Amino acid sequence: MTALLPRRGLAQILALIVILAVDRVVSPQFFDLRLQDGRLFGSLIDVLNRGTPVALLSLGMVLVIATRGIDLSVGAVMAICGAIAASLADTHSLAVVLAAALGAGLICGLWNGFLVAVLGMQPIVATLILMVAGRGIAQLITEGRIVTFSSPDLVWLGNGSVLGLPVPVVIALGMLILTGAVVRGSALGLLIEATGGNARASELAGVGTRAMILSVYVWCGVCAALAGVIAAADIMGADANNAGLWLELDAILAVVIGGTSLFGGRFSLVLAVLGALIIQTMNTGILLSGYPPEFNLLVKAVVVLTVLLLQSPKLTGFAGIAARLRRTKP
Amino acid sequence: MILKALFAASATAALLLALPANAAELTIGFSQIGSESGWRAAETSVSKQEATKRKVNLKIADAQQKQENQIKAIRSFIAQNVDAIFLAPVVSTGWDSVLKEAKEAKIPVVLLDRDIDPSGKELYLTAVTSDSVHEGEVAGDWLAKTVGAKACNIVELQGTVGASVATNRKKGFDTAIAKHANLKVVRSQTGDFTRAKGKEVMESFIKAEGGGKNICAVYAHNDDMMVGAIQAMKEAGLKPGKDILTVSIDAVPDIFKAMVAGEANATVELTPNMAGPALDAVAAFKGKGTVPPKWIQTESKLYTAADDPQKIYDSKKGLGY
To answer: How far is residue A193's CA from residue A179's CA, in Å, rounded to a whole number?
Structure first.
C-alpha cells in the first residue's frame, strides 16, 4: 500500500484541504450530508460524483503518460462509447450494452496503441487523429441528435446508489483498486516506468516495450469507455456533440497536478485521482460561490497555477537560494 | 406536313401558355450551415416540407460549418441561374463580394436564422430571424404572470459565456422581470447549453439555496439544460413543475415529454420554420414585386401544458431534433 501513496503526495493533499476550506467559506453548507431516497446527498457527494469521469480518464491517462505518451482522444472515445451504450440500451441487456461500449473503447485504444507502438508515430499526433475523427463517428452513431433511453439498468449505473454512495463513485473506486492491484501488485508498473524512462535501454534489458505501450493505450481506451457510459447514464442520453468535450485536457491536468511528469518514467495512480478530485472540488466551489460565470475560467487558472507552483522543484529551490543569500549577506 | 407543323406549334404555344399557371415552380438554392445541432437538422427538414407545400424546387447545399463552402454553393447557384438564394450565414462578415455577384445576376438573397454585418445591408432582400431578446422577454412575462404577486427567487442557467444568444436571452428576461419587484434572479451560472452541465449547475444551486426550498423558479436559456436541471431536481427529492416552476427556450421535443409528465411548465419556441416566411416573401417579390421589410421576425410562441404537449411532441420528434 505504501507504493500506492508515496510521500510526495503531501502538496496535493495540502492543496485539496485548502480548496475544501475555501469551499466551506464560500458555501457554509458545503460539508452538510443527509440521506435522500436512500442515497447520500450533499456537495461533497457532488464533488465525488461529478469528478468520476475525469478520475476514470486520469487512471488510464496516467499510465499512458508514464510511458512518455499522451492520449488526446479520450474525450472523443467517451462520446463514441456513450453513443453506443445509449443506442443499444432500450433493446439489449445491460451486459450486452456494457460489452459493446467497453469493446469499442478497447478497439479505440488498440488503434492508438498500434499507431504509437507499431508504426512509431508521435503520441500527440497519433491520438489527435481519433480526437478529431472520434467525435464525428459518435455523431454518425447518434445521427446528430441526443439519443435518449429509459432502460432502468443503464440509468442505475449513472444515478443509482450502493450503500448510500452513487454508483459511478463505486465504479471509479473499483477501477482504482483494480488498476492499482494489476500494475503495483506485479512488476507491470515498474516495466511501464522503465519504458517511459528510457525505452531503448529497457528494450535492451529485455522489457517488451511495444507490448507495454500497446497495453496502456488499450487500458486508457477502456477507462474512457467506462467514463462515457457513466456520462450518458447520468443524463439518460448520449450527446455526441458535448459528451467528454475538452475532458482530455482535464484528465491530463489531473495527472500533472498529481505530480506525474509528462516526460514519463514515474507515476502515481492515487495522486492522479486526487488531482481529478482537486479539479472537481474547485469546479463545485465555483458553482456554489455565486460569482458571475465570466470568472469561472480565471479562478480555475489561478488555482491550478498555485497548485503547480507548490510542486515546482525550481520554486522550492529559489526559496532555498533566497534563504542562503539572507544567511551570507551580513 | 404544314398542318403537322402548325399543330406542333400550337401545342407548344398551349404548353407555354399553361406554364404561368405553374409559376410557383420556383427554383431556390439554400446554402445551409450544416447539421451541428438538432435544431439545425429540424430547420433543414422543415425547409424541405415548406418548399414542397408551395411546390418550390429547393436545392440544399450543406456547408459543413465552412464559409468557403457556402461561398462556393452561392456561386454555383448563381451559375445555375436560380430564382432566389437562401443563406444561413455561418459567420457575419466576409459576404460582400459574393452577394454583389448575386445582385449583379439579379438573384435576390434571403438570410435565414442569422444576420450579417451591417455593411452588407443593401446586398440582400430580407433577413428572416428570431429575436432572442424577445424570446427572453416572453419567458419572463410568462413567469411574472404565473407567479402573480408572490415573492419568487429565480435561478438562471445561462448559455455559453459570450454567445450572443445567451447574452440576448438574459437581457430580455431581465427586462421583463425588472417590472416586477417580487421577482429576483438569485443565482445565475453558465450551463454551456448542455444537459450534463445544466444538471451539474442545478445540483449546486439546490445545495446553495437550502436544498431547493428557497427556489421558486428555474429559467434556462435552452431546453437541453432544463432537461438536465429537471433530473437534478428529481434526484434531490423535489418536484419540478410543482415545487419549482420551469421556463426555458427552444421548444425541442424532449421538453414536451417532460411537460406531458408534469415536470416542465413552459417553453418559448425558436421556430425551425425560417424558410416558410422567406418563401412567401420571395413569391410576393417575384410575383407582384412587393419589397419585403429588411427584417422579418419569426414568432416566439409560448407553449405550456395547456397546449397538448403530447401532440406537439409527436409532430416534432420526426424532424431530426
So the answer is: 15
Contacts of residue A292 in chain B, CB cutoff 8 Å?
188
* Whether A155 contacts chain B with CB within 8 A: no
Give the separation between CA A247 and CA A76, rounded to whole angstroms: 9
For residue B184, give the H/E element and its range: strand B183-190
CB atoms within 10 A of CB A153: 15
> Which H or E run contains A102?
helix A94-113
Nearest CB partner across the interface for A284, out of B37, B204, B224: B204
pTM: 0.89
A81: Cβ contacts below 8 Å, ≥ 6 apart:
A101, A102, A104, A105, A224, A225, A226, A228, A229
Helices (H), B105-194: 132-147, 164-178
A38 touches B: beta carbon within 8 Å: no
Is B261's Cβ below 8 Å from some Cβ in A?
no
Q: Using one digit for the tens of pLDDT, what is the confidence trace for A184-212?
A: 999 999 999 999 999 999 999 999 999 99
Under 8 Å between Cβ of A57 and A279:
no
* Phi, psi values for residue B152, rounded to 5°: -140, 120
State the pLDDT confidence band at B3, using cuts at 50, 70 and 90: low
Of A27, A39, A235, the CB nearest to B231: A235
Structure confidence at residue B19 (pLDDT): 44
Least CB–CB distance from A287: residue in B35, B41, B189:
B189
**Beta carbons of A239 and B161 less than 8 Å apart:** no
Interface check B175 vs A, CB under 8 A:
no
Q: Where are the beta strands (DSSP E) in B79-182?
A: 84-87, 109-112, 126-129, 152-158
Nearest by CB to residue B195, choosing from A36, A143, A235, is A235
Q: pLDDT tens, B231-282? A: 999 999 999 999 999 999 999 999 999 999 999 999 999 999 999 999 999 9
In contact, B111 and B89? CB cutoff 8 Å:
yes
Task: Report yes or no: B192 at the A interface, CB cutoff 8 Å.
Answer: yes
In chain A, residues with a C-beta closer than 8 Å to the C-beta of B202 are: none
Q: Is the pLDDT reported for residue A4 higher than 50? A: no
Residue A308's pLDDT is what?
Answer: 86
Over the stretch B160-195, which tens digit does the pLDDT of each residue have? 998 889 999 999 999 999 999 999 999 999 999 999
